Amino acid sequence: MGRDGRGVRAVSDSSIEITFMYRGVRCRERIALKPTATNLKRAEQHKAAIEHAIANGTFDYSVTFPGSPRAAKFAPEASRETVAGFLGRWLESKRKHVSSSTFDGYRKIVELRLVPALGPVMVVDLKRKAVKDWLDTLQISNKTLSNIQSCLRSALSDAMEEELIESNPLAGWTYARKGEVKDDDVDPFSPEEQQAILGALEGQGRNLVQFALWTGMRTSELVGLEWGDIDWLRGEVHVTRAITQAAKGKAEVTKTTSGRRSIKLLGPAMEALKVQKTFTYLANLEVFQNPRTGERWAGDGPIRKTLWVYALKKAGVRYRRPYQTRHTYASMMLSAGEHPMWVAQQMGHSDWTMIARVYGRWMPTADSLAGSKAEAIWTPTSTATSDEQVRKDRLTPSH
User: Could you tell me the CATH number of the domain that includes residue 113?
Assistant: First the structure.
């Protein structure tokens, strides 16, 4: 006697279930009626009335189904929260649980991107198509598109935890423009460019840049580096903290566990440290200081504005942001044949798949002798003897 195709069906001898969509959620509710043909017809009419009220915006879940567990979820104070209101609460809840730089990134995305575009929309009414249509209008890089989606996806995941929405419309989905080159494409400095940049600098500025080129450390990690992090006996630098501009001088642990690492001090990096000792070693605090203030750098902004831009312009080198020193380190190591896993560990990546994906074109291709070492070690003796005999037979003239 069920009428499943119409969203009405008998579920017991004394009840009928109706199914309808409300605020993007498929809802199923039971009506205490014996599932006779007449009552099934009445249930269909009741369902139609509900859908009409939903379309007109007059449906009140708690009035229609006062005993339903879903009623609280669709209460006015929950169902009428806008994206702007929810994101404001969500952002504040993140302040104490993420790093300052991550929070500042979230704040900019929420205030400058999400709220102006999606703020008036009800959280429960937000659909993937609306997000996609909006993203499609933005003239920004794929990296920025990814950052926006990551922030919104995280917020909507928390909205699910609060039971404001049944599912996350961005779960398992990513929007990107095909064939577009990221604005952070790897663009390392050539050996000639490196020498020109270092030649345009002196003192602490030169030491900082040379150390960056030969350790691959992030700018925030260089700012947070202290003399106690240097292991002179092992020839290593221990990376445990970072100071971003958003943190306003406050040291924070690195973003990931793999980011806390030990980097081997290669010759040029060790040389830069030894020269730098004459400037800041006796203070026994930060390794690198702003020469203008005699204090720790406040972040990557001051380095870029007062040191980096000047050096590249004086050296006549095409401008790239300071982060390219990290890309330069990776490309140098891989071009020289260093193992990708070792490079990944030095740079603070948990595995080398990212290294292969981003820096693959700097990894040496196999030469004509590739595989010969494995062949010499693992080829069975009998096979080797047989092959040798074949070669001898070919050289022996036939009679």
Answer: 1.10.150
Classify burial at 147, counting beta carbons within 10 Å of its beta carbon; exposed 0-12, middle 13-18, buried 19 or more: middle
Tell whether 147 and 254 lie within a shared domain. no
Domain boundary among 41, 58, 75: 75
Contacts of 78 (CB under 8 A, 6+ apart): 72, 164
Question: Are residue 53 and residue 99 in the same domain, yes or no?
Answer: no
Widest distance between CA atoms in the chain: 107
Each residue's pLDDT tens digit, 168-195: 999 888 888 765 544 447 899 999 999 9
Distance CA 219, CA 223 (A): 6
Do 233 and 320 lie in a common domain? yes
> What would the pLDDT profile of 60-87 be if each residue is shown by its tens digit?
888 888 878 777 677 655 556 889 999 9
pTM of the model: 0.55
Q: What is the pLDDT of residues 328-350, one digit of tens each?
A: 999 999 888 888 899 999 998 87
Host domain of residue 261: 191-361
Q: Is 75 helix (H, G, I), strand (E, B) or coil?
A: coil
Side-by-side strand order, sheet with 15-22: 8-12, 15-22, 25-31
Integer angstrom CA distances of residue 367 from 119, 267, 362, 372, 378: 57, 28, 15, 10, 20
Question: Domain boundary residue among 75, 98, 131?
Answer: 75
Dist CA 372 CA 30 (whole Å): 73
Cα end-to-end distance, the chain, whole Å: 96
Per the CB < 8 A criterion, the answer to whether 193 and 153 are in contact is: no
Residue 145 covered by a domain: yes
Burial class of residue 386 in the structure, from the number of CB atoms within 10 Å of its CB (0-12 exposed, 13-18 middle, 19+ buried)? exposed
Q: For residues 91 and 118, state if they share a domain.
A: yes
Looking at the structure, tell me whether residues 251 and 326 fall in a common domain. Answer: yes
Residues 301, 307: Cα–Cα separation, whole Å: 10
Residue 248 belongs to some domain of the structure: yes
